[in-house]
């Protein structure tokens, strides 16, 4: 898109783009928008302009409204979308649906040593605690049905059995464990509003702080410990030894001490960690990443066979 088009779009927010625009690499998942671009205005402020698909209009609007609510309730690390001159969060221009949010600069995550930096565990625990404390009533107005991790795992397993039976067989101990120890309990499990994809790559990091949390596409009502379980699963996938190391220990100790989850949620926390990994397995298969897929299956079986030992190390047994 030429600069002249951006000029016309940005006038919906009374902004003018600068004559010179720098190329900026944006964090997060680009596939969740039709397109996105960092734009600097004439006052030197940088924005992210997103074009969204028509079929995602309602969901994008609900997410934008939710981010506003979270910001109003005092959650740090939230940078809501800007409303245009008509007070709208989504702007229609020349058949395009556009959204505008502040660009937040950060320090790239060092994938080699981030698990050695305990301040990150403390920062993420603080964010999870604060979000739980301000999430009643749910900030998402158009909540929709409760996300069922049990139904998701069962559907994936059926697909494996029909089309990739070797995968189903390799994961049979994992599925049997969840069917016995997790699924029957989820019906009465406490729920709350969750980010839905809370992990270090969806955080814009500062100098020992969280600058912004991004990619809220999967937010909604889920088992209350969902975000913490997803995060712990990601820690272990990066480095299995870290599951029982100081980093994870700090995260669990902080969240446990805050009493934001019920005792029941902690009882089957490790099984929730395992169940959420089916989502990552589906992602590796969607992107045809066979190496990550095979590693994921080994990891899921490791979590299953060693769950008692891991829970004991966490002080949850």
UniProtKB/TrEMBL annotation:
Span of domain Aminoglycoside phosphotransferase: 37-245
One matching Pfam family: APH
Coiled coil regions in record: none
InterPro entries hit by this protein: AGP_Transferase, Aminoglycoside_PTrfase, Kinase-like_dom_sf
Gene3D superfamilies in alphabetical order: 3.90.1200.10
Domain of life: Bacteria
PANTHER family listed in its UniProt record: AMINOGLYCOSIDE PHOSPHOTRANSFERASE DOMAIN-CONTAINING PROTEIN (PTHR21310:SF15), AMINOGLYCOSIDE PHOSPHOTRANSFERASE-RELATED-RELATED (PTHR21310)
Protein name: Aminoglycoside phosphotransferase domain-containing protein
Annotated organism of origin: Pontiella desulfatans
Lineage: Bacteria, Pseudomonadati, Kiritimatiellota, Kiritimatiellia, Kiritimatiellales
């Amino acid at each position: 898109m030429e600069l002249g088009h951006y000029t016309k779009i940005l006038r919906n927010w009374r902004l003018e783009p600068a004559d010179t625009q720098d190329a900026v690499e944006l964090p997060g998942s680009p596939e969740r928008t039709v397109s996105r671009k960092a734009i600097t205005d004439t006052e030197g402020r940088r924005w992210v302009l997103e074009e969204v698909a028509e079929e995602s209009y309602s969901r994008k609007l609900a997410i934008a409204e939710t981010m506003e609510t979270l910001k109003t309730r005092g959650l740090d690390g939230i940078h809501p979308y800007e409303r245009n001159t008509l007070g709208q969060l989504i702007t229609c221009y020349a058949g395009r649906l556009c959204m505008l949010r502040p660009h937040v600069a950060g320090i790239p995550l060092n994938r080699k040593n981030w698990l050695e930096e305990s301040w990150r565990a403390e920062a993420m625990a603080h964010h999870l605690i604060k979000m739980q404390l301000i999430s009643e009533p749910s900030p998402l107005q158009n909540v929709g049905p409760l996300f069922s991790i049990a139904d998701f795992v069962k559907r994936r397993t059926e697909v494996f059995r029909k089309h990739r039976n070797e995968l189903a067989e390799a994961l049979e101990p994992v599925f049997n464990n969840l069917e016995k120890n997790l699924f029957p309990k989820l019906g009465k499990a406490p729920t709350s509003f969750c980010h839905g994809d809370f992990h270090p790559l969806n955080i814009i990091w500062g100098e020992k702080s969280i600058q912004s949390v991004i990619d809220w596409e999967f937010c909604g009502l889920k088992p209350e410990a969902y975000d913490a379980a997803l995060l712990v699963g990601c820690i272990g996938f990066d480095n299995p030894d870290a599951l029982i190391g100081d980093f994870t220990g700090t995260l669990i100790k902080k969240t446990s001490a805050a009493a934001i989850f019920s005792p029941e949620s902690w009882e089957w926390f490790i099984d929730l960690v395992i169940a959420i990994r089916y989502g990552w397995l589906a992602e590796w298969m969607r992107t045809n990443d066979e190496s990550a897929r095979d590693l994921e299956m080994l990891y899921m079986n490791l979590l299953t066979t060693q769950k008692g030992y891991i829970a004991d190390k966490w002080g949850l047994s």
